[in-house]
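Deliverable D2.4 — example input (structure tokens):
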């Protein structure tokens, strides 16, 4: 496969992922206005369960199938690739059906544990209903995921990218339309509206599956030609085939489970701890902010790290396997610097603009602004944990990443309730941050030991990035202060939007100019990026002159 085709495929897949993420964020703003923070909590109860059980149902198999198919295609053994695909479809259907049945049956018990053995703003029946509504998607999504993996194994990223966007679009449209109709047209309950909103996962899955079937029908003649040209297939039993598949699957499922597992711990401890702290009346209100609304904003910069983490594995693996350790160290260093360069200013901007940003995007809430300000730094932790896990996977030391996740989760379980009782709802954020810090320290040590990586250059440039981010933050604060004489973020969404957009624009300009003028931008992002910026600026000047 040519490098240009590889880059194009990576770009297509990344673009589809980003569009899907943006759609998955935008819908929250009108949805939050319709159902409120308590409705957000109810929505989170269902989706947190869904995320965990989906990971259990798929077990990292879709990405592993991609690797398996790619390997045997490279050997010319298209028969074994197709055989794995057929067996994988059957397995995903069975595991999806089993996890759906289990989650559906267990919904009342999970609902009871979620509410801390008592009814709060949301009733036991409401939570049970929402969990059951979202569980239906488990029947389809695992099969859809393995079809995507099969196409990716053939270096065809279009089906995955397009189906992701269509799936998300269908889900969001159904979610918003059904919520509006239930609450505003038929004046139904908020719980019923949220139930239909979670059922949107099933509707989206149907739409995504339809796209994949269309691609399959279109591509099948060419796939059959490859099958006819297959070399003598590998002599493998079905059991041996799955054994190899699951040897690939472990790391993929582990990386994807990290954030959902932390949220899962919150689901079963948050309300109980808030009740114990004498804040039962605020429990679900705070849960909605902390678990449903704010994380979506935090995941914007984190998605940059996720994209780097997923594309990092092949290059790290290649350098490590070929013994090019100097190149390996440069790749690790470049990745660390790029993550800090991109995520740090976003974190600082979210901290300084936390209150107007939250009021602009969601309903007016001082608690929401405070939670966003507290949660923003965790974006860096999410990012570096994802990247460290990918690096360890690339150098075939994924067991250390698994150990770090287990240790971090133990810390989260041990401290979560205590911190919530001490600090209120934001105690769960502190507990999460502590768990991730310990995991990152451990994984960083393992990377240094096994890749002989020294972070000297990274830390030197990080000091400079912190200085520039601080200056950027100061400029944003000045803008916010000056605008406060004319508008206040508490005056409404328009006023909050003016402050947010003006502050973000100035902050981006200040950080961009500082990093460009000092040469930091070129050192971190490369001369190609700087060249693109220069050409575009030049075009602007030429167009203005004309």
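Example output (designed residues):
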């Amino acid at each position: 496969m040519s490098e240009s085709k590889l880059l194009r495929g990576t770009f297509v897949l990344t673009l589809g992922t980003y569009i899907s993420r943006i759609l998955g964020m935008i819908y929250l703003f009108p949805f939050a206005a319709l159902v409120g923070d308590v409705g957000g909590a109810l929505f989170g109860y269902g989706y947190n369960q869904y995320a965990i059980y989906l990971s259990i149902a798929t077990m990292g198999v879709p990405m592993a199938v991609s690797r398996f198919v790619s390997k045997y295609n490279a050997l010319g053994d298209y028969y074994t690739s197709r055989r794995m695909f057929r067996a994988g479809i059957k397995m995903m259907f069975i595991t999806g059906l089993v996890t759906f049945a289990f989650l559906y049956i267990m919904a009342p018990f999970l609902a009871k544990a979620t509410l801390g053995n008592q009814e709060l703003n949301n009733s036991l029946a409401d939570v049970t209903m929402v969990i059951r509504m979202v569980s239906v998607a488990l029947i389809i999504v695992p099969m859809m995921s393995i079809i995507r993996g099969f196409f990716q194994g053939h270096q065809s990223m279009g089906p995955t990218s397009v189906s992701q966007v269509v799936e998300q679009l269908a889900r969001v449209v159904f979610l918003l339309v059904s919520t509006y109709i239930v609450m505003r047209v038929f004046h139904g309950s908020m719980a019923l509206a949220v139930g239909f909103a979670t059922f949107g996962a099933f509707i989206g899955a149907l739409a995504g599956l339809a796209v994949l079937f269309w691609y399959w029908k279109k591509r099948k003649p060419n796939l059959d030609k490859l099958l006819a040209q297959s070399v003598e297939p590998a002599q493998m039993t079905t059991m041996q085939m799955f054994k190899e598949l699951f040897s690939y699957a472990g790391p993929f499922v582990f990386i994807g489970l990290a954030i959902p597992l932390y949220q899962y711990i919150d689901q079963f401890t948050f309300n109980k701890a808030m009740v114990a702290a004498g804040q039962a009346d605020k429990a679900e209100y705070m849960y909605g902010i902390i678990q449903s609304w704010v994380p979506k904003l935090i995941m914007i910069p984190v998605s940059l790290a996720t994209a780097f983490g997923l594309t990092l594995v092949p290059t790290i693996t290649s350098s490590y396997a070929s013994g090019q350790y100097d190149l390996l160290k440069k790749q690790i260093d470049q990745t660390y610097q790029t993550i800090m360069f991109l995520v740090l200013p976003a974190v600082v901007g979210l901290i300084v603009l936390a209150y107007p940003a939250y009021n602009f995007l969601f309903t007016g809430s001082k608690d929401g602004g405070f939670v966003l300000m507290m949660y923003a730094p965790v974006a860096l932790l999410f990012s570096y944990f994802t990247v460290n896990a990918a690096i360890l996977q690339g150098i075939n030391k994924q067991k250390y990443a698994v150990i770090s996740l287990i240790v971090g989760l133990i810390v989260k379980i041990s401290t979560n309730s205590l911190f919530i009782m001490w600090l209120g709802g934001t105690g769960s954020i502190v507990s999460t941050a502590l768990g991730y810090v310990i995991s990152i320290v451990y994984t960083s040590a393992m990377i240094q030991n096994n890749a002989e990586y020294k972070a000297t250059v990274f830390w030197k440039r990080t000091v400079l990035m912190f200085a520039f981010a601080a200056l950027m933050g100061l400029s944003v604060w000045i803008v916010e202060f000056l605008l406060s004489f004319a508008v206040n973020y508490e005056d409404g969404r328009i006023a909050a939007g003016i402050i947010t957009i003006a502050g973000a624009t100035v902050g981006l300009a200040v950080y961009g100019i500082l990093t460009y003028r000092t040469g930091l931008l070129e050192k971190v992002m490369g001369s190609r990026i700087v060249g693109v910026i220069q050409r575009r600026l030049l075009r602007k000047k030429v167009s203005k002159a004309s």
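The chain has two domains: 27-235, 301-546.
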